[in-house]
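Entry 14. Two folds queued back to back today. First construct below, sequence then structure tokens.
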Amino acid sequence: MTEEALDNRLRIAVGIGSTHRPGMADPLAAWLERELGTAYRLDLDMIDLASVALPMHEMRTGGAAASPIAGRLADADGFVFLTPEYNHSFPAPVKNVIDCHFSEWAYKPVAFVGYGGSGGIRAIEQLRAVFPELRATTVRESVPLPMPYEHLDADGRFIPPPGAEQALHAPLRELRVWAEALRSLRAAEPAGRE
């Protein structure tokens, strides 16, 4: 691969939304990392919210006073959120990472992979209402994974059910289109991120 091609690879931050350990997030994140890194040739930054210390207070307009991942989010061309559904919504760590940042999300696409009894669809739909306020665009398709614990092998590895890999194609294709277009926009109009 040429240096120019490497420079043009999309940088995608994958936010792992569950802080329950042990839990389903680990095998699902491993599956996503394999799929996105290999099939889609993306430069991935896997951000496990369970290992990120973000403040729940001392917030100010425009984000947290100090965030250990602000630079990683700013460097991303787009985002994929792996989110469980807790009590018909997304978990508090996901909302906290969103609220602790502001300009890092602007003019970038966001895709969702949800899991839980209903496949996380209610969590995903609620997140769709949050990101436009931060000038981010959400892709139309999502990947719901209902009852993923039924698809673990003896080693605890997630074996996607029929259709899961195909379901990942549509949002990732749209994420790539938006990420490439919006990267050009951000380069031409950096003031639009303020």
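Second construct, same run, same settings:
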Amino acid sequence: MSLSRAPRRRSTGGRALLLTAVTLTGALALTACTGADGGKPTGSGGNYVTGAKGVSTAAKGERTEAPKLDGETVDGKTLDTTALKGKVVVLNVWGSWCPPCRAEAPSFAKVSKELTDAGKDVVFVGVNVRDNSKQNAASFEETFGITYPSLYDPDGKLLLRFPKGSLNPNAIPSTLVLDREGRIAARTLAPLGEDQLRSMIDPVLAEQ
């Protein structure tokens, strides 16, 4: 006489929790030190074009407004990027644990200081992600001489505010340049050297 085994049933509540976890994981899937496409050029988008060097740009009349990014900074102060309209804003997404972020940090420190000292109409803002403590992030800034503020975003929630299909920062590191109206003018999903960084900023600074 054979005994049939009753099918194993997962509770509805457990299944719901699993689906929620999977959804959140997918939403926060900013692959460490790379992007969904490995940082490679992806051709043309709906309102932007990606060049041979992996920098995507949007024409002045085709840009998407960047979302409000606000909260506490690594040094314990507060920052709201919408208050920076009227200036060109360079947003850099980084983590102290990310080797490419460490590689590009000296270029950001140098270019930001030189542009500030020259009185250029540009400000730099970092977005620190996936660091479990502010201490690690603060040590990174001290080591590389980063003097501009960085929003502390350990869960990557600020990055989820960017609309899908836009030039969103879906890799670490990512760099965006916002025009004076707070719209996304350029983006790259790869680490930058000094010359590449300037090549993203200068055309937006020159706009009237």
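Quick look at the second one. The longest strand covers residues 122-129. DSSP finds four helices and nine strands in the chain.
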